[in-house]
Each structure stands twice: as structure tokens, then as C-alpha cells.
Amino acid sequence: MAIKLLNNKSIRLAMPLAVGGTTLFLQAGEGAQFPALGASDYFYLTLIEVTNGQETDWEVVKVTAVLGDELTIEREQDNTTAREWSVNTRGEARVNAGLLVELVGSQLGDVAAVLDGVLGV
What we know:
Keywords: Signal. Residues 1-28 form the signal peptide. This protein has 1 helix and 7 strands; from the N terminus they run βββββββα. The chain is an alpha+beta fold. The longest helix is centred in the C-terminal third of the chain and has 23 residues, at 97-119. It is globular.
């Protein structure tokens, strides 16, 4: 799978997302800001609860497909818990711990392969 890294992308939900839901329905036209994803590509979004101007709850989701303004997701990423999200819930492409662990892990594998080739270890 190839991680797609995104800058400055945000969305608002057009429909509620139930606890067991696996599709985010975005406001009209918002899906166009995301890249096309191949069969093994994905990126992360963080869904955000805002109360009185303060962020109070989050869920990290893995987006595995983009079709217009619909995003197919895998829930409960990076030790977050699935919950219901209401219309107009904000989501953002953010750096999260899970993303960094994946990137560092993939780089460590490359370093190990190089060292193996150079040092014969």
C-alpha cells in the first residue's frame, strides 16, 4: 500500500456517519481536492468534534477510495474509537502518530536493505 501525503485538505460531512459506517459523504465538490487512489493507496483524515470553539473529540480514519464526494474509510485508526459524527463535522488531513510510525518503519526497512547490501549483514 502507498500512503498519500496531503497538505491543507479539510472537509465537512454532508450526511451523518453512524458508528458502523464506512462511507463519508462530503459537502458538494469537496471530493475533488483529493487524489485518485490506486487499489492499494490510502491517506488519513481526522474527524473532529468542536464544542464551544474547542476540539473535544477525534477519530482518525484511513481513506481507501475516493468516488466523487464519497470517501470509503476504515475506522478506529491510530488508537481512536468509532463514534457517530453529525452533519457538518469537520475532517482534516493531519499528521498523526500512525502515519509517522508507518513512514519511519518503511524507511527503516530501506536502510536495513542498503546496509545488508553494503555490509553483507
